[in-house]
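Same chain as my last thread, 112 residues:
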Amino acid sequence: MTTGDAALTQLRRGALEHCVLALLQSGERYGYDLVTELSEAGLLASEGTLYPLLSRLRRDELVSTSWQESPSGPPRRYYALTDAGRASLDTFRHAWTQFAGSVDQLLQKGTP
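reply #2:
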């Protein structure tokens, strides 16, 4: 793994939790829907990464879950953002904006 790959992996890990919360802002989602969207965005390397994260978010009361019947197959677990999850996402958005601005500023200093 190159230094660039390692840096990207660390950035993904740090942001993934809040990307999940952001996807849940518009309403509850089925776990596989989250996997698909995060994978398409290049933020998720494997499905096995997401489900432990969702369990932790549930344990931390940032998301709630419900079981719903599926039109095809067994019932599915859906995830929804809680008030605490919404507050965590708002805090992250503010911090991210400041952080990204600072990093961008520093990176631009080295550009001719």
